[in-house]
Write a structure and sequence with these properties.
The complex is a heterodimer.
Chain A: H1 6-14, H2 20-38, E1 41-44, H3 46-61, E2 72-76, H4 103-110, E3 114-119, H5 153-160, E4 167-171, H6 177-183, E5 186-189, E6 209-214, H7 217-227, E7 257-261, H8 271-286, E8 290-294, H9 302-317, H10 336-347, H11 350-363, H12 369-389, E9 395-399, H13 417-421, H14 428-433, E10 437-445, E11 448-456, H15 461-474
Parallel strand pairs in A: 2-3, 7-8, 7-9
Antiparallel strand pairs in A: 1-3, 4-6, 5-6, 5-10, 9-11, 10-11
Helix pairs in contact in A: 2-3, 5-6, 7-15, 9-11, 9-12
Chain B: H1 5-14, H2 24-38, H3 73-77, E1 83-84, E2 87-88
Helix pairs in contact in B: 1-2
Classes of the chains: A alpha/beta, B mainly alpha.
Chain lengths: 489, 95
C-alpha cells in the first residue's frame, strides 16, 4: 500500500480495493515499527486517525467522497490542531493543546484526509537540522547518523521512510525544500500569500509559507489544490481565483527556457552534487527545454539580510509566549518580570534565544536603520535580481542544498551558529523575494539524496509542478527509497 | 559589531529572557559572530533603494468594523496556567 501515489491511493479507495481504515492502520503499524529509529513524530494521534478513517469510509460508501478522502497524512507540529497538542517542538508549548484549527488543517480535514499525527521539527522552525527539537533529533532514513535537514525534518523523514504518504511543512528560509532534498522527496513552497498562515505558529511572518511534502510532483499538485486559497484570517493572504495545480502536469516542455544562475554553480559547490545537478538539467533539456546562464548577483547577501529580518520578526512574534495565557510558566515567580524572564529563559532552547536576542538588538532604539531597514533594502535588490532574470527565462534551476545530509553535530560542533546558516544559501533568497520554490530528488551521491531546486516566477507553481512531473515521468530518482524501511506491506 | 557582557544583559532584559550568568560570555561571543556576519550588508550601497515590507507590495486589507468572532473565553482560558473569575492571574504588580 505504501508504495502508491496519492492518485493511486485515491483510485484504490474509490474502487474499495481497501478501506481508509485498513490503509490508516497500515500506516499506524509502520509508524509503530519504524518511527523509534527516526523519531519523525512528536505525537501519533491513533484514536483520532481511526475515527477520521471510519468517517471517510462512510463518505466513500455514500458516494460523497472527494479525491483525497480517506488518505492519511501527517501535520508538522507547527500547525494548530484543535484538541491535539501543538508543541512547535518546544518545551514552551509542550502542554499546549491548541483550542482551534489552523486554516490549512481545516481545509485538509474538510477534504476528508486522515491525520496520523504531528511531526518533529526544529524548535519554532528555527534550524536546518531538526537538532533543536525539544523532543530529540529526527534522523535521516537514508543514514541514521545523519540529519534529515530542517526545520521540517520530521515531515521529510516520515515521507521518505513511507510512514505517511504526505506531510505538511513550512518554509521560512528553506525549511520545506532543504529537508526534502536531504531525505530524497518532493517539496514545494508556494508563492508567499498562497497558503494561509492562520494557525501556523509564526516564526518570521513576512517569509513563512506552508506547503506539501510528498513523494511525487503529482502528489504535491493534488495537495496544493486543497491547501491553497484566500483566507480572511491571514492579513497577507492573496485574493485571487483558485486554480487547479494538476491542470498542466502533462504539458510538454518544448520551448521552455531554464535559467542557471552562475552564483549557484560556483567553485564552492561540491563537485559530486554539481554532477548530479548537471545530469538532471541535461535530462530536462532532452525533454525539450533549453538553458541559459543568468546572474543573481546579490545571492551572497541573502543570508546576512535573512539573519536580520527573520530574527527581528521572530523576536516580535515570540513575545506572545510570556507564561501568562498559555504554554510554560516557571515555578513561583516573584514578580511579573521574573514570570516573563524565567518562563522564557527556562522554556526556550539556545537557538531560539539567540535569534530572539539578535532580533531584539536589531530592532532596539538607534539600530533599526542599520539593521532592519538595511536588510529590507537588500531584500529589494534580491527581488529585483529575480525580476530581471524572469524576463529571459521561465524557470530557474540549481541545487537545493550545498551538501547532502551531514552528520549530527557536524555544523554545530564548532559552536559557531553562522556555519549552520550557510547551509541555506540556495533557498533563502527565494523566501526574501516571496517566489515559489520546489525541490525534487535528482539522484544519489554516496548513497545520499541530492535535491534539484526549481524556482518560478510569482504564481507559477503549476509550471514548476509540470516540469517536475515531466522529469519524474522520465526518471526514477523519486521512486528510490531507503532500504531499511521496506519491511511491512 | 562586537557585544560585551553588559550589552548581552541589556538585550536579555529587553527580550525578557533570563540568561544563566555563566553563559553570558559565550552568548556574547555567539551574538557578536552573527552580527559580524550580518555586517556584510554594509558592503552594498543601498541609498535610495525602496525597502520591501511585503514581497508582492500588497497594501493592508481593511474590513468593516463589525464583530466576526464569538466569545470563547472559557474555551481559551482552559489552557491558561492560572486564571480566576475569567481573568488571567500574574504576580502582584502594584503593592
Amino acid at each position: 500500500m505504501h508504495n502508491k501515489t496519492l492518485a493511486e491511493l485515491s483510485t484504490a479507495l474509490q474502487d474499495k480495493e481497501f478501506s481508509s481504515e485498513e490503509l490508516t492502520r497500515h500506516y499506524l503499524d509502520r509508524i509503530q515499527q519504524h518511527d523509534p529509529s527516526i523519531n519523525s513524530f512528536i505525537t501519533v494521534t491513533e484514536d483520532l486517525a481511526i475515527a477520521q478513517a471510519q468517517a471517510a469510509d462512510q463518505q466513500i460508501a455514500s458516494g460523497n467522497a472527494g479525491t483525497l478522502t480517506g488518505i492519511p497524512l501527517a501535520q508538522k507540529d507547527i500547525f494548530c490542531t484543535n484538541g491535539v497538542k501543538t508543541s512547535c517542538a518546544s518545551l514552551m508549548l509542550d502542554n499546549f493543546i491548541a483550542p482551534y484549527d489552523a486554516t490549512v488543517v481545516e481545509k485538509i480535514n474538510d477534504a476528508g484526509m486522515v491525520m496520523l499525527g504531528k511531526t518533529n521539527m526544529d524548535e519554532f522552525a528555527m534550524g536546518s537540522t531538526t537538532e533543536s527539537s525539544y523532543y530529540g533529533d529526527a534522523k535521516n532514513p537514508w543514514d541514521l547518523e545523519r540529519v534529515p535537514g530542517g526545520s521540517s525534518g520530521g515531515s521529510a523523514a516520515a515521507v521518505a521512510a513511507q510512514l505517511t504518504p504526505v506531510a505538511t511543512g513550512t518554509d521560512t528560509g528553506g525549511s520545506i525544500r532543504q529537508p526534502a532534498a536531504l531525505c530524497g522527496i518532493t517539496g514545494i513552497k508556494p508563492t508567499y500569500g498562497t497558503v494561509s498562515r492562520y494557525g501556523m505558529i509564526a516564526f518570521a511572518s513576512s517569509l513563512d509559507q506552508g506547503g506539501p511534502m510528498t513523494r511525487t510532483a503529482e502528489d504535491a499538485a493534488m495537495m496544493l489544490n486543497v491547501m491553497t486559497g484566500f483566507d480572511e484570517k491571514d492579513a497577507t493572504s492573496i485574493e485571487r481565483d483558485s486554480e487547479d495545480y494538476t491542470r498542466s502536469l502533462n504539458n510538454k516542455l518544448d520551448g521552455l527556457t531554464i535559467g542557471l544562475p552562475k552564483e549557484y554553480f560556483s567553485d564552492d559547490l561540491d563537485s559530486d552534487i554539481a554532477n548530479v545537478i548537471d545530469t538532471a538539467i541535461k535530462e530536462v533539456e532532452k525533454l525539450g527545454a533549453s538553458i541559459k546562464e543568468i546572474s543573481l548577483p546579490n545571492t551572497r547577501l541573502s543570508i546576512p539580510a535573512y539573519y536580520v529580518i527573520a530574527p527581528a520578526e521572530c523576536s516580535s512574534n515570540l513575545s506572545r509566549m510570556d507564561g501568562v495565557r498559555f504554554g510554560y510558566r516557571c515555578e513561583d515567580p516573584k514578580d511579573l518580570y521574573d514570570l516573563y524572564a524565567r518562563s522564557r529563559g527556562e522554556a526556550f532552547g539556545e537557538e531560539v534565544k539567540r535569534r530572539i536576542m539578535i532580533g531584539t538588538y536589531a530592532l532596539s532604539a538607534g539600530y533599526y536603520d542599520a539593521y532592519y531597514l538595511k536588510a529590507q533594502q537588500i531584500r529589494r535588490l534580491i527581488s529585483d535580481d529575480f525580476k530581471k532574470a524572469f524576463l529571459d527565462v521561465d524557470v530557474i534551476m540549481g541545487p537545493t542544498s550545498p551538501s547532502t545530509a551531514f552528520k549530527f553535530g557536524e555544523l554545530s560542533e564548532d559552536n559557531d551558529p553562522v556555519s549552520m546558516y550557510l547551509a541555506d544559501i540556495y533557498t533563502i533568497s527565494v523566501n526574501l523575494a516571496g517566489l515559489p520554490g520546489m525541490s525534487i530528488p535528482a539522484g544519489l551521491v554516496k548513497g545520499l539524496p541530492v535535491g534539484l531546486q526549481l524556482i518560478g516566477n510569482y504564481f507559477q507553481e503549476a509550471k514548476l509542478l509540470n516540469i517536475a512531473h515531466q522529469f519524474q515521468q522520465a526518471t526514477d530518482h523519486h521512486q528510490q527509497t531507503p532500504d531499511s524501511f521496506q519491511e511491512g506491506k | 559589531m562586537s557585544l560585551d557582557k553588559k550589552d548581552v544583559e541589556a538585550i536579555a532584559r529587553l527580550a525578557r529572557l533570563e540568561i544563566n550568568p555563566d553563559q553570558i560570555e559565550e552568548t556574547a561571543s555567539q551574538l557578536s559572530s552573527i552580527l559580524e556576519f550580518v555586517d556584510q550588508m554594509n558592503a552594498v550601497d543601498t541609498t535610495g533603494v525602496e525597502p520591501i515590507a511585503h514581497p508582492l507590495d500588497l497594501v493592508a486589507r481593511t474590513r468593516e468594523d463589525v464583530v466576526t468572532e464569538t466569545n470563547q473565553r472559557e474555551h481559551f482560558q482552559a489552557i491558561a496556567p492560572k486564571t480566576q473569575d475569567g481573568l488571567y492571574l500574574v504576580p502582584k504588580v502594584i503593592e
